[in-house]
Design brief:
The complex is a heterodimer. Chain A is mainly alpha-helical. Chain A contains eight helices and one strand, in the order ααααβαααα. Chain A folds into two domains: 73 residues, no CATH class; 95 residues, Arc Repressor Mutant, subunit A. By secondary structure, chain B is α+β, with helices and mostly antiparallel strands. Chain B has a six-stranded antiparallel β-sheet with strand order 2-3-4-7-6-5, covered by helices on one side. Classes of the chains: A mainly alpha, B alpha+beta. At the A-B interface, α1, α2, β1, α5 and α6 of A face α1, β1, α2, α3 and α4 of B.
Chain lengths: 179, 237
């Protein structure tokens, strides 16, 4: 049903949210189980039109993993829930071009710095970074995944990149001072 | 990962991608997930199985509705037929037609124990006895009308037979009523065509306190302000 690479893809996505290996595995397990439960009840309604059936199982499981993770964190009250809608999407034109013309190709970074950087980002930022950098989704696709307006996601991504640049600059300065 | 490799600078996107690609599920975790998937897939019914189940279900539904219709038809038919209990009582009345033993003291005692009041004074008890209506043990009283006719009352105490509902009807020359009076008491009344309906109601109301408090719909008796002792044969003015 799912090959090794697909299961690893789910695991990495879960890892981008939880930043914890065992939690990520648990999330994948829950996501897969919920997906199986979902498809096991589907054949009972044979009359159901095909468009209502699961077209993209991986997307469904990712969405389940995301919901499971935020439910878990809400219970733990660790994550500060910040509405993604709170971003001002009215100045969408300001961000168009900024994001696409900023693939951060000029930024050179080593693995140690990546680990430090990821550790400083929160779950939502890590997830967004994962979708953009690892899965290489476009802003359009990310906005569809989140079911949010494109402008909101443009704004989010722009701020995230800005924050990463700032953090890397701070890290550079401190490294130079030490050197 | 070696320390040297960690220090190699890459483009940002590439570096993030590599950092994730280095993290994978362990073999044991992969095996556990594949096992979960395999078990669930094995249990998942095929479309053909599901269709067969659906067809089977439709057949069961069809058979069920036929059985329900038949049951409904039988219960409707039995509702309009005279219950076997009434025909047994009717037969018992004719069997004891020549018995005139009046109100027996044992019978009066039984009535008192079972919170059934005495038969009102103007109506003489012609016969009293314990009898069986089929498997049901009952107490039978024959009460004469004040001027004409007679009524037979059967008291059945204990568990009701199934489908004992408040009903009434006619069998040959007699009217009958089946009344559920209280939790453990059901009354069967048969009275001749020349016995006045008002008198029957009056006697029952006098004997059974429940009918006095819960008149009308529950027991199927029509009770109006005119209910009272019969004062004599109706004579045209």
């Amino acid at each position: 049903m799912f090959n090794k690479e697909e299961l690893n893809q789910l695991y990495r996505y879960a890892l981008s949210l939880s930043a914890h290996e065992q939690t990520a595995y648990d999330l994948v397990q829950s996501g897969v189980e919920r997906y199986l439960k979902k498809i096991s009840v589907m054949p009972q309604s044979l009359e159901r039109p095909p468009e209502n059936q699961l077209k993209n199982p991986l997307a469904y499981i990712k969405s389940t993993i995301r919901n499971c993770y935020f439910d878990l964190e809400r219970h733990r009250k660790v994550v500060s829930i910040i509405s993604i809608d709170s971003d001002d999407a009215s100045n969408i034109d300001d961000y168009i071009g900024l994001v696409d013309s900023d693939p951060m190709e000029d930024v050179l970074i080593n693995q140690q710095e990546v680990q430090q950087l990821l550790a400083r980002l929160n779950a939502q930022e890590n997830e967004l970074l994962y979708l953009w950098a690892v899965e290489e989704h476009t802003v359009e696709e990310i906005s569809r995944i989140y079911a949010k307006p494109r402008g909101t996601m443009l704004s989010k991504l722009h701020r995230l990149k800005k924050r990463i640049r700032e953090q890397l600059q701070v890290a550079d300065v401190s490294a130079n001072e030490k050197g | 990962m070696s320390n040297k490799k960690q220090q190699v600078k890459q483009s940002f996107k590439q570096a993030v991608k590599q950092s994730y690609e280095e993290k994978s599920l362990s073999d044991a975790q992969l095996e556990a997930l594949q096992k979960t998937l395999a078990q669930k897939v094995a249990h998942k019914p095929s479309r053909a199985d599901v269709r067969a189940d659906v067809n089977k279900l439709s057949v069961y539904k069809w058979l069920g509705s036929i059985a329900a219709s038949l049951l409904f038809a039988v219960s409707i038919m039995s509702f309009f037929q005279t219950p076997a209990l009434i025909t047994s009582a009717y037969a018992d009345i004719y069997k004891d037609a020549n018995l005139h033993n009046g109100m027996q003291s044992s019978m009066q005692q039984w009535l008192d124990v079972n919170r059934i009041d005495r038969v009102p004074q103007p109506y003489p008890v012609q016969m009293s006895k314990f009898c069986r209506l089929g498997p049901v043990l009952t107490t039978h009283l024959r009460i004469a009308g004040k001027a004409q006719g007679e009524m037979n009352v059967f008291f059945h105490q204990g568990e009701d037979a199934p489908l004992w509902l408040n009903r009434s009807g006619k069998v040959d020359d007699m009217h009958w009523k089946l009344l559920k009076v209280r939790e453990n008491l059901t009354v069967i009344v048969l009275y001749s065509h020349d016995m006045r309906e008002k008198s029957v109601q009056f006697i029952l109301h006098e004997m059974l306190p429940e009918l006095r408090s819960e008149v009308g719909p529950k027991v199927g008796l029509e009770v109006g302000p005119e209910v009272g002792p019969e004062v004599g044969p109706e004579v045209g003015v």
